[in-house]
């Protein structure tokens, strides 16, 4: 477990220096609400939410790349509207095959692919990237808004299986999350459980929120794997309403534990990330709260 925790935290830190290079770019864009300084799941400009993912190896991208890119749009409180893609392939014939698979994702999610770029450079590794645009349902949901006493819940099934199964699971998760927002269920913070595993994503939320956490259940024992479901932080009083919406949509919802003011992460009372480490992570995280 100790090695897995270290691996999750290292994943959280590995792009920090890249973000620092672009730190002042946010100042160049008017009406920017979430940018490089927030390092959240997507960028928000006015009510427009934009996310880019990749490059993926073709095998992964053609199966789930658009699904994952849309997921980061929804988790910030927006409905995905349309997408672009860019791919490097070895031949036009391969490009057509990839396009047919992407069309399945696009049609299944109801997110049209409107354009992009196709490269056939002979010295490049085949890969694919996606960009998705969406609009906020009401207010943005950041990954940094955890409050003391909040319960963090895991929403949705693991997004795995064939393309059709991934689409079905993602759509249920998307619909449930957006319905929670439409019904004014208070979600203080949310994050897509993806890169770095759910534990790493949880710690990033805590570091940005300057909160600790007591893990009371472990819904998935492999804490480092990609999950594709959501971590959502809600006040205790909102749990019953969240359960009601999730049950109506047949979407799994599991409570992981409780946010606390003490800057430690514990599992069943045993501290696994101590205060000294949490303070180091807070000091080392290039993060600034978004403007109100």
What does this structure look like?
The protein has 292 residues and is α+β, with helices and mostly antiparallel strands. It has two domains: 15-136, 60s Ribosomal Protein L30, Chain: A; 151-284, PurM-like C-terminal domain (Phosphoribosyl-aminoimidazole Synthetase, Chain A, domain 2, Alpha-Beta Complex), CATH 3.90.650.10. It is built from eight helices and 13 strands. A hairpin with an 8-residue loop joins strand 1 and strand 2 (43-45). The longest helix is centred in the middle third of the chain and has 20 residues, at 163-182. The model has no long low-confidence stretch (mean pLDDT 95).
**Strand arrangement in the largest pleated sheet:** 8-10-7-11-9-12-13
Order of helices and strands: HHEEEHEHEEEHEHEEHEEEH
Q: How far apart, in Å, are the first and last alpha carbons?
A: 39 Å
CATH class division of the largest domain: Alpha Beta
**What's the total count of β strands?**
13
Q: Average pLDDT value? A: 95
Shape: globular
Q: Which value, in Å, is the CA radius of gyration?
A: 19 Å
Please render the helix and strand layout as text.
Elements: H1 2-13, H2 16-21, E1 32-34, E2 43-45, E3 48-57, H3 58-74, E4 78-88, H4 92-109, E5 113-119, E6 127-136, E7 151-155, H5 163-182, E8 189-192, H6 197-209, E9 212-215, E10 230-234, H7 239-248, E11 253-260, E12 265-267, E13 270-273, H8 275-284
Helix pairs in contact: 1-6, 3-4, 3-5, 4-5, 5-7
Summarize this entry quickly.
Strand 2 (43-45) and strand 3 form a beta hairpin.
Features:
292 residues, alpha+beta, 60s Ribosomal Protein L30, Chain: A, Phosphoribosyl-aminoimidazole Synthetase, Chain A, domain 2, 2 domains, seven-stranded mixed β-sheet, six-stranded mixed β-sheet, 13 strands, 26% strand, globular
């Amino acid at each position: 477990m100790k090695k897995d925790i270290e691996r999750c935290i290292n994943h959280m830190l590995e792009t920090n220096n890249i973000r620092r290079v672009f730190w002042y770019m946010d100042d160049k864009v008017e009406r920017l609400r979430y940018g490089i300084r927030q390092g959240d799941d997507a960028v928000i400009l006015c009510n427009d939410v934009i996310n880019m993912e990749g490059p993926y190896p073709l095998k992964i991208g053609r199966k789930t790349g658009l699904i994952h890119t849309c997921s980061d749009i929804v988790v910030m409180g927006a409905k995905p509207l349309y997408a672009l893609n860019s791919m490097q392939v070895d031949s036009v014939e391969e490009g057509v095959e990839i396009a047919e698979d992407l069309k399945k994702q696009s049609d299944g999610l109801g997110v049209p692919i409107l354009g992009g770029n196709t490269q056939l450079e002979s010295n490049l590794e085949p890969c694919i990237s996606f960009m998705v645009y969406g609009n906020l349902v009401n207010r943005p949901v950041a990954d940094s808004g955890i409050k003391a006493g909040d319960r963090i819940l895991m929403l949705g099934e693991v997004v795995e299986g064939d393309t059709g199964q991934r689409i079905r699971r993602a759509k249920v998760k998307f619909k449930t999350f957006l319905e929670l927002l439409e019904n004014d269920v208070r979600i203080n913070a949310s994050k897509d459980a993806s890169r770095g595993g759910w534990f790493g994503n949880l710690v990033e939320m805590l570091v940005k929120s300057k909160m600790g956490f007591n893990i009371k259940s472990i819904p998935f024992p492999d804490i480092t794997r990609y999950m594709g479901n959501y971590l959502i932080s809600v006040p205790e009083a909102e749990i019953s309403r969240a359960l009601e919406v999730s049950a109506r949509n047949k979407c799994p919802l599991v409570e992981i534990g409780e946010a606390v003011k003490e800057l430690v992460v514990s599992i069943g009372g045993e501290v696994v990330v101590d205060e000294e480490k949490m303070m180091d992570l807070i000091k080392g995280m290039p993060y600034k709260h978004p403007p109100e």
